[in-house]
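Backbone geometry:
***
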Amino acid sequence: MTPAFDKLARPVQKWIRAQGWRELRDIQTRAIHILSEDKGDLIIAASTAGGKTEAAFLPLISQVLDDPATVAGFDLLYIGPLKALISDQARRLEDICQEAELPVVPWHGDIAASSKSRAVKNPRGILLITPESLEALFVRRGLEIPRLFMSTRAVIIDEIHSLLDAERGIQVRSLITRLELAAGRPIRRVGLSATLGDMKLAREYLRPDTPDDVHVIEADKGSSELRIQLRGYVSGDKDDEVPAPVGAISDHLFTHLRGSDNLVFAGTRQSVEIYADRLRTLCEDAHLPQEFYPHHANLSREYREFVERRLKEGTVPTTAICTSTLELGIDIGDVTCVAQIGAPFSVASLRQRLGRSGRREGSPAILRQYAIETELHADSNVVDRLRLGLVRAVAMIELLLEGWCEPPRPDALHLSTLVHQILSVISGRGGAKAPDIYKVLCQYGPFRSVSSAMFLDVLRAIGRPDVALIEQGEEGILLLGEVGEKLTDHYSFFAVFKTPEEYRIVANGKALGTISIDSLLAPGMLIIFSGRRWHVQEIHDRERVIVVVPAKAGVPPRFGGDPGIIHDRVVERMFGVLESRERPIYMDRTALDLLDEARGNYAQIRFDTGGIVQTADSEFLIATRLGTFKTETLALALRSQGYRVHVHDGFIEGAIGEAQSSPSDTLKAIARGTNIDLFSSDPNLISEKFHPYLTDELLRLDIASSKLDRESLPRICANILGDGA
């Protein structure tokens, strides 16, 4: 063993020897030295099953054992994003801590109340908790927080990449700041991650005041073999009992995955059920044991754990057809292959998923990607002819092979999460003054982009009589209002995030169904629903109703999944793919034919003289060559001038509508700096859990900070025109 081994406590050394380890991994050796010799923060980045958990806990547990705390309190705090991950890590840590008799305390919604009560009465050892359960501690036991965490030496944040730019990540940062303020001292922060695109932003997330002092350990990516295949399929417009692509893909999965352990990421929950049902039927028809199982959040915990257990034990072949539920680091053992149906929306996600495969020494990592494109007809839409789903899949595979993935986005205002944390502080303390709350959440916490004036506007908004989240008591003390008390009393309050809001789709007074939307939508834009394209006429945001009328166009893609956020770099590579003649060796013949077709159609559009072309008498196509945020910003600007627009990956499809000038003239005006009201077309503003309690003015500020890029708008238009107008 290395000298790093000698720095570990004897019970920990004994556990390592019992595992039969011949040596520590490189990241473990480096982490032991840093955590033993330095008091600073640390990020450990390595692939799934790369030894990150042991790298963090072996030295930290050793410190607890060699230098016991003199006061009661949890010694180490682990924050994990999933209950299943908490339970899994607890089992691993119990093995390490059993010899030392150090308690390991898992804490989430499925843990018995009696176990939690015992832990609160005698807090010690390692507390493993979800962000929501930690929030519940602050709300329900706020006055006990100093006692519970007085002796905490470090907080370990797992899967940090999943938190960086999300509401939940802001919540975790806020809770850790409040924890340090309660303890009266800084607490070491250790971040664990399998995928990080920008270490600078990751450091800033972990310790905003002193990011340069955060140590970083990145594991060697190694040179394991990677096998990739991208297969293409074409869907027609017939409503077969089993649509042709679903049947063909299911047959291919059945043939190539049967008899081994695999993950198939199918996109939406509906798609998961469709493919799982088809694969189940194939097993039954072949008189074979069942080995294909669905896995998504709507299924019961017992069923999900049954599937996870089958994968981890590896005694019988098991393939999970899943959404993103198995993307994070739940230990399910090694899988032979990862399949992806449809293009994902981030390279980081694709890389994280692929990390599940090829973990055994000598085994290749295998990715089977399936791209489904719509059969073209004479009236097919011009953008459909570009096969953007297939092109995005190629672009993401190319970026994956280059080792790139998306960096986290810089902090936005996060006003919805701010409202949540205001209520949490007031509830936990039984009341608080506005300056004190501002200091905790904005001056020291993660809401530093919120000025004191804006903070007061937020307080006024949630204190309105018709909102009643808070009210003011004697001596300026802020208390929970009638609605605020009801919210914080319910367990659903502890989660700061929500699933995308369901809107009812109504045409000619008839409800067509519901759709989830998490991107900006405005009247005049197009949506795809129930196999058809629709023009949005009206959006009733607070009633969750979208009024639509049929739109002209060919048959839309029926297997694309929900819209996602596409990075500028991905779109840039997509255009590189369209403009290239290279035929990737990992594509099958159908996929290559579809790519050739897309390139031919792209060449016919003739973007060589600029980024805007006329496609019909009153219709046009703009190549923004940019990702979701910048493209949607321009789309809102055009909509405000009377155009009807629809956003695609790097493109805006438009019609003159009620516009008074040509698209080129409008772009020239914007490029010269003409002021545009991006919200004049009344886009949906409510996308996060506590948005309904804010004023429209605050909602516009929040949306502008998180989903738009107004500052880039003149430059975007100038680049499209190609003359720097």
User: Anything to note?
Assistant: Residues 238-242, 554-562 have pLDDT under 50 and may be disordered. The longest helix spans residues 167-183. DSSP finds 25 helices and 25 strands in the chain. The first strand starts at residue 42 and ends at 45.
